[in-house]
Amino acid sequence: MRTIHKYEISSVGRFSLPLPTSFSPLKVATQGGKAFLWVELDTSDPIKVVDFIVFGTGWDLSANVVDGEWAYHVGTFLEGPWVWHLYEIIKERDFDAQTDEEDGEQQIA
Questions:
Q1: Tens of pLDDT, residues 38-94
Q2: Which residue segment(s) compose the domain that 53 sits in?
Q3: 109: in domain
Q4: Which of 56, 59, 63, 98 is the most exposed place for a label (fewest CB within 10 A)?
């Protein structure tokens, strides 16, 4: 079943969420003083662990993303006087597989 789910997220640093493989981020925002990520997903899809990281404005992004990883911007949210930026961490092998899937072929490097 395709549906939208809400997940509480960390305000700073790395964290992981178990999400169906077809998840699609919709919005990042605060509600009731906590940060949340809303995603569209298919509940019948297999689950995978997805890594995320939250950065503050002006922070060094490269200091927290290691070789072989890509950081994909998911959204920006406000928390009090702070502005935070949520990124999905994609391993190079996962990025290669996603790129090849778009071409109709899946090849994992």
A1: 999 999 999 999 999 999 999 988 777 777 788 889 999 999 899 999 999 987 655
A2: 2-102
A3: no
A4: 63
The predicted pLDDT at position 75 comes to 96
CA 88 to chain CA centroid, nearest Å: 3
CA distance 38 to 4: 7
pLDDT at 100 over 80: no
In a domain, 82, yes or no: yes
Which two structure tokens, joined as six digits, stand for 49? Answer: 């662990």
CA distances from 13 to 51, 63, 69, 85, 107 (A): 11, 12, 15, 10, 31
The number of distinct structural domains making up the chain is: 1
3-state secondary structure 35-81: EEEEEEEECCCCEEEEEEEEEECCCCHHHCCCCCEEEEEEEEEEECC
Could you tell me if residue 89 is inside a domain? Answer: yes
Amino acid identity at 85: H
Residue 108 domain flag: no
